[in-house]
Backbone:
């Protein structure tokens, strides 16, 4: 038995960060890791994936790209990461942890793993389990892929994303199942290196969790890269063949490939952790419910504190894991801190890339985590309070935006910006196209676009989605604006450098603030629509995009120049926030 102030279960991004911080704050800490110290992001997800995408962009050969990936991921050797933790004062214990009582974790050690010094031993084979006690437990066990219900799946050559990102093989023909962020990135990456890729997505569009335009533009880009994109297609049956496999879709189509890559869903890794001992009932797919302090809801009154950080709480990004880890560490060290989920970026690192942050029309949105703090029963976690939030694949009701777009397609569109209904804050949308900026013109970029969503009640930005080259870089000011609740009026007065994509942001902000210059935009829109019609791609998605672009052009022509509702130069920020008073009717 070894006693620690803090036991961290899981040594990925979140676990390593919490452990290092609390050890630095003077706590005794044990970190239990069943696999690689550093977790998915460093070895099997973000870094290898982005490394390969960048290699593809530089035109490297597959062999060179794999060599670079091996360099970036340290050849899947985590000894340097383990040493860093040891130097920080963290006791690293390799094995699988399970909670056996409030205050106690039992670790089944990996073969040949040393017994922790605090347990009084160094001989590795003395016993296969170690018991640890704690005052604070941090659950940071990440998430795991979920196999879709496809008959015959276990008999065919299939990859998880982690397997694909650590394999030296470049399949000649590959099926990617799932059109979420990982599916899109891997489709583009393999297609760029010469694989014949078919992406199969059950929903009618890519990136189903984001506004339709993002997935539509991405579908065009992936098709340009040579991929075959099958939307609204559900896979039903897989069979092994001499060359690999055949996948049958519900419409009767059969696709042959050497391999199937599963990128169709993940769920928090909670099985076998012994959470019932803490009085928690979890069902597969459920995220750990947390308070804004990242304490696991419903675990109070047991004489110990239980915290959670990372994908296990329903977040799906490395930066979110690190953010929650900071919050957990601060609270363990006695510095009250609450997480605010209003502006956590969501990125897809394709070309063009997709950047989204905050609430979207008709979406679950992301509320500001205004403090519930000490109420252990409350659930103000990252998924908008969703105790049963599923990862990545969230069934979304038809959005108000979709209805507005359907109306637009029928020629009944309202002038932009458009106010949308639905639950949560009422959002006003402004749009801009990167092709209308000098940067877009110079780069001959006709695929980029952005939408900004302002809260009609408060006049501050609630969310944004952009598609374009390196969108995360030039959209990060929106993240700040949402988090700091900077009034749209102030943002519209910010000067953006010429020639940059930031100028598209400026156009949309000015439109939201009622200072946009619509006639000039209309001229440019007309020009860009002409350019787009020259694209040599004929797909239903292209038609949809073209229709939407014409609608935007019409809107821009029809949009009357609005009265400036407030004086940007004279009012201070607080005054403006009070005075903006977005009114739905202003935009009709
Ligand atoms: C293909 C792909 C690409 C991605 N790209 C990006 C990107 O570009 N940017 C981005 O921000 N995010 C990206 N992500 C998401 C990102 O990888 C995750 O959000 C991040 O790794 C989560 O960190 P974590 O600490 O919560 O979990 P993990 O890193 O998964 O760590 C959890 C650790 O817990 C260990 N563990 C589990 N159970 C036990 C147990 N019982 N005992 C001991 N140890 C245990 C596991 O072995 C694991 O190492 C990507 C994900 C995928 C799948």
Residues:
């Amino acid at each position: 038995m070894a006693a620690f102030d803090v036991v961290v279960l899981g040594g990925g991004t979140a676990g390593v960060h919490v452990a290092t911080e609390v050890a630095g704050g003077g706590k005794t800490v044990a970190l239990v890791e069943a696999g690689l110290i550093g977790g998915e992001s460093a070895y099997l997800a973000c870094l290898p994936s982005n490394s390969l995408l960048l290699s593809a962009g530089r035109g490297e050969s597959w062999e060179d790209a794999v060599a670079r990936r091996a360099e970036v991921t340290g050849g899947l050797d985590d000894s340097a990461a383990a040493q860093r933790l040891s130097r920080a004062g963290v006791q690293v214990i390799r094995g699988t942890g399970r909670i056996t009582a409030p205050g106690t974790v039992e670790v089944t050690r990996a073969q040949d793993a040393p017994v922790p010094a605090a347990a009084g031993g160094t001989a590795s084979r003395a016993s296969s389990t170690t018991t640890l006690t704690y005052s604070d437990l941090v659950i940071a066990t990440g998430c795991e892929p979920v196999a879709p219900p496809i008959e015959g799946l276990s008999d065919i050559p299939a990859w998880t994303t982690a397997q694909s990102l650590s394999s030296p093989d470049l399949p000649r023909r590959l099926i990617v199942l799932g059109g979420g962020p990982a599916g899109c990135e891997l489709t583009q990456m393999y297609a760029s290196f010469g694989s014949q890729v078919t992406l199969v997505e059950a929903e009618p569009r890519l990136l189903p969790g984001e506004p339709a335009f993002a997935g539509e533009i991405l579908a065009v880009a992936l098709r340009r890269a040579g991929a075959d994109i099958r939307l609204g297609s559900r896979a039903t049956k897989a069979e092994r063949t001499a060359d690999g496999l055949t996948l049958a879709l519900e419409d009767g189509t059969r696709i042959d490939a050497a391999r199937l890559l599963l990128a169709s869903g993940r769920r928090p890794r909670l099985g076998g952790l012994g959470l019932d001992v803490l009085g928690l009932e979890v069902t597969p797919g459920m995220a750990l419910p947390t308070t804004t302090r990242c304490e696991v809801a419903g675990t109070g009154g047991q004489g110990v504190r239980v915290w959670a950080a990372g994908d296990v709480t329903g977040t799906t990004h490395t930066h979110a894991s690190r953010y929650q880890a900071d919050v957990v560490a601060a609270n363990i060290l006695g510095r009250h801190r609450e997480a605010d989920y209003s502006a956590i970026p969501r990125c897809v690192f394709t070309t063009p890339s997709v950047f989204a942050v905050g609430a979207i029309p008709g979406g679950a949105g992301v509320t500001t985590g205004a403090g519930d703090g000490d109420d252990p029963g409350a659930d103000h976690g990252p998924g908008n309070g969703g105790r049963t939030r599923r990862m990545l694949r969230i069934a979304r009701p038809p959005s108000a935006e979709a209805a507005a777009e359907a109306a637009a397609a029928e020629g009944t569109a309202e002038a932009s910006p458009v106010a949308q209904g639905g639950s949560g804050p009422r959002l006003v949308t402004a749009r801009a196209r990167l092709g209308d900026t000098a940067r877009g013109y110079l780069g001959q970029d006709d695929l980029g676009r952005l939408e900004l969503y302002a809260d009609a009640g408060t006049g501050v930005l609630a969310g944004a989605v952009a598609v374009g080259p390196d969108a995360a870089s030039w959209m990060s000011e929106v993240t700040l604006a949402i988090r700091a609740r900077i009034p749209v009026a102030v943002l519209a007065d910010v000067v953006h450098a010429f020639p940059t994509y930031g100028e598209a942001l400026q156009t949309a902000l000015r439109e939201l603030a009622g200072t946009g210059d619509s006639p000039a935009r209309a001229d440019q829109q007309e020009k860009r629509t002409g350019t787009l019609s020259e694209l040599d791609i004929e797909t239903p998605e292209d038609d949809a995009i073209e229709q939407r672009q014409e609608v935007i052009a019409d809107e821009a022509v029809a949009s009357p120049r609005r009265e400036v509702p407030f004086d940007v130069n004279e009012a201070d920020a607080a005054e403006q926030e009070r005075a903006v008073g977005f009114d739905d009717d202003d935009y009709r």
